[in-house]
Amino acid sequence: MAKLSLSLLLFFFFIFCINIGTVEPLSRAAHSQARAFVEASCRTTRYPALCVKWLTCHASSNTPPTAQQLTRTALTVNLYRARHVRLYLVKVAKELKATKAKEYLFTALTEFPGQRMSKMKATIKSKVLNVAQLTSNALALFHRYAAAAIEKHP
């Protein structure tokens, strides 16, 4: 029985290895098409490098994404990052008194870059700025998708 299951395992492993060589070039071509579509779509956003960074990994399926899928992904990524920042701020609020956390957040958002900031303030500011940039990109993609949909169906 052990020899039979070992033989079956080796057989399936052999079939898997053979299929990898035939499927991989198609996957690479589809991935490069998907990346090209993401890059072209992200050119219209305010932060194209950030857009490409976050959406390329989500658009690596076997088929290039549509404008609707890309817009939905951008909005989903934005929501995920906003929730992540919210959880971080809740954690900070628990570590500090609530009023102190509000002061830190206010200071982090209004301080000038030339002034000296603590590590926590800098972290809060960068996380909030990242979400703001992702929101800008998601809204730009959504606006572009909505405008195209309106043109198709006036």
From TrEMBL:
Keywords: Signal. Residues 1-25 form the signal peptide. Residues 33-141 form the Pectinesterase inhibitor domain. Pfam families: PMEI. InterPro entries: Invertase/methylesterase_inhib, Pectinesterase_inhib_dom. GO terms for molecular function: enzyme inhibitor activity. This is Pectinesterase inhibitor domain-containing protein. Gene3D superfamilies: Invertase/pectin methylesterase inhibitor family protein.
